[in-house]
Amino acid sequence: MQRSKSQSFRVEMFALRRGFIRSPAALQRLHPAISPTLLRILPFSSSATTAYPVAKRVGTHNGSFHCDEALGCFLIRLTNKFSGAHIIRTRDPQVLNTLDAVLDVGGVYDPSSDRYDHHQKGFEEVFGHGFATKLSSAGLVYKHYGMEIIAKQLHLDVEHPDVHKLYLALYKNFIEAVDAIDNGISQYDTNEPPRYVNNTNLSSRVGRLNVDWIDPDQAAEKENEAFLQAVDLVGSEFLESIQFHAKSWLPARSIVKECLAARKDIDCSGEIIMLTRSCPWKLHILELEKEMKIDPSVKYVIYQDDRSTKWRIQAVAISADKFESRKPLPFEWRGLTDEKLSKVAGIPGCTFVHVSGFIGGNQSYDGALAMAKISLMDK
Questions:
Q1: Are 126 and 134 in contact (CB under 8 A)?
Q2: DSSP 8-class letter at 173
Q3: H or E element: which one contains 215?
Q4: Phi/psi at 135 (nearest 5 deg)?
Q5: At 301, is the secondary structure helix, strand, or coil?
Q6: Of 61, 65, 106, 59, which is closest to residue 85 (Cα–Cα)?
Q7: Residue partners of 99: CB distance under 8 A and separation at least 6
Q8: Do 44 and 21 meet the contact criterion of CB atoms below 8 Å apart?
Q9: How far, CA to CA in Å, does 150 sit from each of 61, 78, 115, 143, 210?
């Protein structure tokens, strides 16, 4: 009787775990479409005569899984110490005690023995560096191994200054949300219900990979396969985040920092900056103002539209998660365009001002700068 693809994959997963399939290449020959990221986290066995050394063993709990232990398992296997480690899913303390590392189960946090649970009474560990969110198993692994992981992925020395900048940025922009959601920490200090539902975050997507309660097949093997899919998902997004922050976020931050330092060359108020190159700037301004102790705060950013020769003037938001501007463009300009706007503003070359006053445009740099200067004086 011919097996289905799903049944065939399960048989081969069993063979893999028993050591009958001993390498990534062997499994990929059987399943050419298998994800390369998944191949990196599968627990390949080997004999002493093969090129694959016996791997260490990392434990986490079985049953329903969450984003934090899936990410923690992926992260720890990126380290030199646990490269290629087997993932063992169990709650049996006798088994857990024999393993090289244990995540999200066992009731112990002890980095010296690679125990990373956060459920025990009295646990209040945080990342530090100004962050106050209680850590999950993912945050614990990242706290102790994040610098090594980033340096290894980018082929940099762990002491390189960019590694530490990225270590903090990736915690803030990727890991912290996983920690907070797993620990039940609300994103906002309010008891009001949210205005809309957001189930598209990483933790929600991992949760949906669990075997559905109505699925007639609730076998442990199927649950483990689902967990590996979750590890694959979070791992691929984490690696993408490293590359984004290294190749896009960090260069943009450098550009914005230079422009902030030169802001008084643009206007003596120090409240207008000009971007020397179009780049993402909104988050960087808010963070760098604190770092550089800038006061008064920047109100407007002017930059050339990267799709034309026209210029834009944009008001800086009061915070990263709010649409409200620190100082919107004048009310009288809002919703107007072209000649009518130029006449009302008394500035030639105006092209538009958004009805909310957060952005406007002009044909020239001088026109955009004039719009910013007049807006600063507007009461």
A1: yes
A2: I
A3: none
A4: -80, 150
A5: strand
A6: 59
A7: 57, 58, 59, 88
A8: yes
A9: 26, 9, 21, 12, 29
The pTM of this model reads 0.80
Tell me the pLDDT tens digit for each residue of 198-229. Answer: 888 999 999 999 999 999 998 989 999 999 99
**In the chain, pLDDT over 70 holds for what percent of residues?**
86
The gap between the terminal CA atoms of the chain, to the nearest Å, is 81
pLDDT of 294 higher than 90: yes
Q: Are 202 and 237 in contact (CB under 8 A)?
A: yes
Both tokens of 131, joined, read: 């962050």
Helix axes 220-244, 67-76, angle to 10 degrees: 70
Say if residues 70 and 234 touch (Cβ distance below 8 Å): yes
Place of tokens 């230079």: 258
Q: Which residues, 6 or more positions from 106, have their beta carbon under 8 angstroms from its beta carbon?
A: 59, 93, 96, 115, 117
The strand pairing partners of 131, in sequence order, are 128
Distance, C-alpha 26 to centroid of its chain: 33
Number of helices (H) and strands (E) in the chain: give both, helices first. 15, 12
| Single-letter amino acid code for the residue at 251 | P
From CA 76, how far away is CA 231, in angstroms rounded? Answer: 11
H or E, element range at 69: helix 67-76
Q: Which two tokens stand for residue 249?
A: 């976020």
Is the sign of the CA dihedral 273, 277, 280, 283 positive or negative? negative
User: How many residues in total does the chain contain?
Assistant: 379
The three-class DSSP label of residue 370 is helix
